[in-house]
UniProtKB/TrEMBL annotation:
This is Heparinase. It comes from the Bacteria.
């Protein structure tokens, strides 16, 4: 370690305690959690589950825990507050709902805490997408594509809603609420006479304190239309699988009353179909081909489930839904009445959507007690960071000389065991069942490391057996290749299908760290070969690094690999979280007392020493001293600040002992 890089974890922890730990709700001092960044990013102040887990993992180092017990408690309580049934929810944020643009003609854009909202009301279109700070913004939901069906004089009629729009408005109140609406004047042929059916209004409501989207269709019948019956109002979702940003939906799940199992509709060949679902109290549209921690979902709770009669479904390409509309039925004859169909919707970008009753229960519970700040109901990416944090709490409270808090230890262990079971069932189980996209390798590596910690803390053999199973799956992410000299090499991919089958440096390094930690426990000869070949994939790389308007040529470390087209490429480590995770793996390798690991470290020592020097210099140039003895590690050499992922990972890489035995 260069002498100008502190190995004492204290300065890194001081930055977290002084600058990142902030109130989760504005105007309140409690509860606190680690904010994504010290200052709001573009008006956003977010608090992530997985980042707080990474912070907690670092804070539970004995030397840090003794100095910062309040921060440990705050991070743990925040994580525990996001645990609901099988779900660890993704993030909270300070309320925000601001107008970005408005042309005065019904076309406008708005920024919500976690959503982008756009409308073209003269066309009857409202679009909603998830918001991120790393280029993953997408258009998840397009609310349009509606019609009305009814019977009058024994004749069934169908009228398009958006073709007859005559009025619209945008209303944003001082209370943080937004209402978008458009209204259509509907006419039909009543036996050679043009009759007015009435006014059909679609209204969509948003609230800065919630992720809920209120969708309402209201038909004010004209008494002159006479008696109409069998009226069907729809709430439509169109252009569902446009492909931009990976958006595509392939399944519909619905909770129906009675003992019958949930309705499941899987997209197949392009067709239009009607699927009866009388009384559906919850339904969702789900992405089928993404990793579960990233898969998209659109969830709906009908206001009056008894009105729901069916779902209309259409596709344009195989295995993709293009348009889906829920049908709300008003069978009785009506004259001059007001008929209303309504649903409350949420969008997510990660979930276990086949667990229909659990999803429905989560939505109902949240709807009944929404809270004062918006909550992203997506699941945390893959539970590995959270399991690692809970395991470190248990381990830190189970050894001699460490802090003593039996209640926290027991709560952490209960959470660990619960979500280890969820991970085994919903992710490892799905992977073993043939779902190649279920698992994300980096969190899987963290799960493996958490099992090493739990075995060290408890000595229970069941954790060893689960570690064996997790490592078996992790090895399936290994892809062998040859290096530039023609020797054996291997990389660990992020995922096993589509665009995820790439060895991002953080995923590769997390896998090697898991191998180093698992080898002394399991004594599997395959681990030594995987570690040896995986170390051979690291290389020096000179890359063009762009950040906003800044551009630089950066000498860094990367992962050398041959892509599916046979082209040699490099996945760079210009971001400090990648370099830090790699340095942590190198340090664990260097400190290991296991004979086979020592032999591998000796074989690669000279190369790894050079690579480590480059990464240490990269992190050193990214450091910034702060008041109160704090030391900030910025996210890159070009970045203006650090964040709640980079800081703890850099600290664990640089601290003398990260407990990675």
């Amino acid at each position: 370690m260069p002498p100008d890089i502190p190995t004492d974890p204290g300065p890194y922890a001081a930055f977290i305690a002084r600058y990142l730990m902030q109130p989760v709700a504005p105007g309140s001092s409690e509860p606190r959690a680690a904010a994504e960044t010290e200052a709001a990013v573009g008006g956003d102040r977010w608090f992530w589950a997985d980042d707080n887990a990474k912070v907690l993992e670092f804070l539970t180092l004995p030397a840090v825990w003794r100095r910062h017990p309040r921060e440990v408690a705050d991070a743990f309580r925040f994580l525990a507050s996001l645990c609901h049934g099988p779900f660890i929810l993704r993030r909270r944020g300070h309320p925000r709902l601001e107008e970005v643009s408005n042309d005065g003609g019904g076309r406008a854009r708005f920024a919500h805490t976690f959503m982008s909202i756009e409308c073209d009301l003269p066309k009857g279109v409202v679009q909603v997408g998830m918001r991120f700070h790393d280029g993953r913004n997408a258009r998840n939901l397009t609310l349009t594509g509606n019609h009305v069906q009814f019977v009058q004089g024994g004749v069934r009629h169908t009228l398009d809603a958006e073709d007859a729009i005559a009025a619209w408005d945008i209303r944003r109140g001082d209370d943080g609420r937004l209402r978008l609406w458009h209204a259509s004047e509907l006419f039909f042929d009543g036996g050679g006479t043009r009759l007015r059916l009435g006014r059909l209004t679609y209204a969509y409501g948003f609230d800065a304190r919630s992720m809920a989207i209120d969708a309402e269709a209201a038909l004010d019948l004209d008494p002159a239309a006479g008696d109409v019956s069998e009226v069907v109002l729809t709430i439509g979702q169109d252009d569902l699988s446009h492909g931009a940003g990976g958006v595509g939906y392939g399944a519909l799940h619905a909770e129906v009353p009675g003992p019958a199992p949930p309705l499941r509709v899987l997209a197949g060949e392009p067709a239009k179909r009607r699927h009866p679902a009388p009384g559906a109290a919850y339904w969702c549209l789900a992405q089928r081909d993404g990793m579960r921690g990233f898969a998209l979902g659109i969830h709906s709770l009908p206001r009056e489930p008894a009105r729901v009669s069916a779902f209309r479904v259409a596709g344009r390409v195989p295995d993709r839904l293009h348009w889906v509309a829920s049908e709300h039925l008003f069978p009785a004859p009506a004259r001059g009445a007001r008929l209303v169909a309504a649903e409350r919707k949420w969008i997510t970008s990660g979930g276990f959507y086949d667990r229909v009753s659990d999803c429905a229960g989560l939505l109902r519970g949240h709807d009944a007690a929404p809270g004062a700040v918006p909550l992203d109901l997506s699941v945390s990416y893959d539970y590995g960071a959270e399991l690692g944090a809970f395991a470190r709490c248990v381990r830190g409270l189970s050894g001699d000389g460490g802090p003593s808090d039996p209640r926290l230890r027991d709560e952490a262990r209960a959470l660990y065991d619960r979500y280890l079971g969820v991970y085994a069932e919903n992710l490892l189980g799905a992977h073993r069942g043939g779902d190649a996209g279920a698992v994300f390798s980096r969190p899987l590596a963290f799960v493996a490391q958490s099992l090493v910690d739990m075995l060290a803390a408890t000595g229970e053999a069941r954790y060893r057996e689960m570690l064996r199973g997790a490592m078996e799956v992790l090895l399936a992410f290994q892809r062998t290749q040859t290096d530039v000299a023609g020797g054996p090499s291997a990389v660990f991919l992020m995922g096993q299908s589509g665009g995820s089958a790439v060895p991002f440096m953080d995923c590769h390094s997390a896998a090697l760290l898991a191998l180093v930690r698992a080898m002394p426990v399991l004594e599997d000869e395959r681990f030594a070969a995987a570690l040896d070949h995986g170390l051979g994939a690291y290389c020096l790389a000179t890359l063009r690094f762009e950040l906003g308007r800044l551009r630089s040529k950066q000498d860094t470390v990367g992962v050398d690999f041959v892509d599916s087209a046979g082209k040699r490429r490099v996945m760079g480590g210009e971001w400090n979280f990648c370099a830090a995770l790699t340095l942590r793996a190198f340090k664990a390798l260097r400190r290991s007392r296991h004979p086979a690991i020592q032999a591998i470290e000796e074989k690669h020592r000279d190369r790894l020493g050079l690579l480590a020097a480059v990464m240490h210099d990269q992190i050193r140039r990214s450091m910034r001293p702060r008041e109160g003895g704090a030391l900030e590690v910025r996210t890159s050499v070009l970045s203006g600040e650090g964040n709640s992922e980079t800081q703890p990972w850099a600290a664990l890489a640089l601290a003398e002992d990260a407990l990675d035995d």
